[in-house]
Amino acid sequence: METMAYSKGPWWTIPENFCLPLVFYMEEDQEERIFGHLDADLHHLEVHSHTLIQLEGWFTATGQTRVTVVGPLEARQWLFLMIWSMESWDPDQQARGLEMLQCVRSQLLTKDDLEAAPSIQLYSTALSLLVRMGRTVHPRLCQASPY
């Protein structure tokens, strides 16, 4: 299994990895599901995905959390796809998201992992555009409504 390697040095030493962070909102219960009770799994997800993830609770009626992710673009896209899939209404997408979550919780993401997620190619252009535009992205807003 090939590990992620960056020829320019560790990911946190590359300024481009901090430009235009991915920012989106998630529900409090989804935060706990992904990052664990009191965000106990947050550090593992950061280390395994080669990213820095900041969680900020917002005082809203639904208790949303603002999520900011910096790191290599491919890793940010992969994490967003994982979260987007988990919040999908489609059971197959949810299962894929849970698989991705188990993967990133248990091991370092590899280039193979990043390339094996077929939907990343479908959504990366739209996600990149939203990130470049400085838009905040909520996974529920990115999918088609079932109605």
UniProtKB/TrEMBL annotation:
It holds the Pfam family MOEP19. GO terms for cellular component: cytoplasm. Residues 9-94 form the KH-like RNA-binding domain. It comes from the Eukaryota. GO terms for molecular function: RNA binding. Belongs to the KHDC1 family. This is KH homology domain-containing protein 1-like.
